Amino acid sequence: MADTYSFDVVSDFDRQELVNTIDQVRRDVGTRYDLKDSATEIDVEEASLTITTACDMTLQAVEDVLRQKATKRNLSLKIFDFQTPEPVGGNRVKQVVKLRKGLSSELAKQLSKTVRDELKKVTVSIQGDSLRITGKNKDDLQQAINLLKAQDVEVPLQFENYR
Hints:
By secondary structure, the chain is an alpha+beta fold. Helices cover 37% and strands 28% of the residues. It contains 4 helices and 9 strands. Strands 2, 3, 4, 5 and 6 form a 5-stranded antiparallel beta sheet that branches. The chain has a 4-stranded antiparallel beta sheet with strand order 7-8-1-9, covered by helices on one side. Helix 1 (15-31) packs across helix 2 (56-72).
């Protein structure tokens, strides 16, 4: 039996599910009567999405479709960081949606401090954009997971490598 047990706290999303979601949104926008003639474009980059459409009203409708499709594909809505829309030429509107991935150093420090203050029997170490929580008892690790799930943070948290 192992001396210590550990797990990692990360913030990540399935890239392929995101691509599938964007494809579904594009199909939906192309077939919906109110959005068909809006010439909406959705560009996917590594760390962001760019939505370009006819007006604010269609932009809001495209955002709603994006949220619905992401929810159906089990993507957390916390990965989307919607920036303020900006006008572009020809009465069109562009919005950048940043994709949140990884724990920022401030958030990692905050979560680490919360776990250390509440649970004395576990150790927390920051490893890049993730946290490693180690303890001698699996029950203490379960308490740490429940404590972190109760926190309201701006990124989705996943618990990996539970061993």
